[in-house]
Amino acid sequence: MSARLWHLGNVVVDLVLAVPALPERGGDVLATRAERTPGGGFNVMAAAARQGLPVTYAGAHGTGPCGERARAALRAEGIDVLLAPRPAADTGFVVCLVDAGGERTFVTSPGAEATLTAADLAELRPAAGDLVYVTGYSLLHDSNRAALLDLLPRLDPAVTLVADPGPLVAEIPGAALELLLARADWWSCNAREAASLTGLDDPAEAARALRSRLGRGSVLVRTGPDGCVVGRDGLLVGVPGFAVDAVDLNGAGDAHTGVFMAALARGLDPVAAARRANAGAALAVTASGPATAPDAARLDAFVN
Questions:
Q1: pLDDT for 179-219, tens place per residue?
Q2: What CA–CA distance (Å, rounded) separates 21 from 72?
Q3: In the prediction, which pLDDT does 104 show?
Q4: Cα 217 to Cα 165, 172, 220, 230, 235, distances in angstroms
Q5: Cβ(71)–Cβ(60) below 8 Å
Q6: Domain ranges for the chain
Q7: CB atoms < 10 A from the CB of 117, how many?
Q8: Full-prediction pTM beyond 0.90?
Q9: Contact 222/230 with Cβ under 8 angstroms?
Q10: CATH, domain 5-11+41-83+113-303, list 3.30.70.141, 3.40.50.2300, 3.40.50.720, 3.40.1190.20
């Protein structure tokens, strides 16, 4: 592929604990499995890179054991790193509790990834045809938010901006949210996030409402095992999912977004790209761990 993905989100380290159920308030529970693995934005980048899309991580990262683990994982996936490590802080981490039903619950401790500045991105010039990915998590940090809002007006109109608001969308400052909605070419979120933004529980209705708020873009609302809804050019299309036996839902949305962006970069039309993304997310949940998106060959075999 000639296009490149520039990821402006946050790479962290996930401490994943499998538990039979979440403890009651003030209670305790024994984990049946524990794993430390790079997560957050890493999952999206790994999913895209495994589809053959060149990827650069343009976010901040730290000096310390978490930062070292994150960079080693990025190198292993062939992902370029734009910035030098921050000398004064380590990369942050996330405690992820995965219950017996495969659902995941997060607690995040921010680190160096929350210190991105406008100076870090001053020379960033994605080429026409490239993709830039922004997550709502970044807009929660004052420094990152200022850096990203400084960058948005400088992006070439031919650069595809993909925005994913994330589960804390209700905490994003309103002015920053509106600026991102105005520039986004694709707004990708799950049904819960779409409902939070619109007050509409029906994913199709929420997708329609979100599409009306976008300045120039289209919307994709993920609906779990049912697939997703794509809204563009005045049309709303439901794209069915793939039936699998889910083991771990952690990272499913990230796998979906990474595969979707890689498919768009290959020239697939959005509905075909969404179908491929549905398949990528379905395969991802059949294995334990957050970064379980399939490579292109495995995904091709599953879809065909």
A1: 999 999 999 999 999 999 999 999 999 999 999 999 999 99
A2: 32
A3: 79
A4: 14, 20, 10, 11, 13
A5: no
A6: 5-11+41-83+113-303
A7: 14
A8: yes
A9: no
A10: 3.40.1190.20
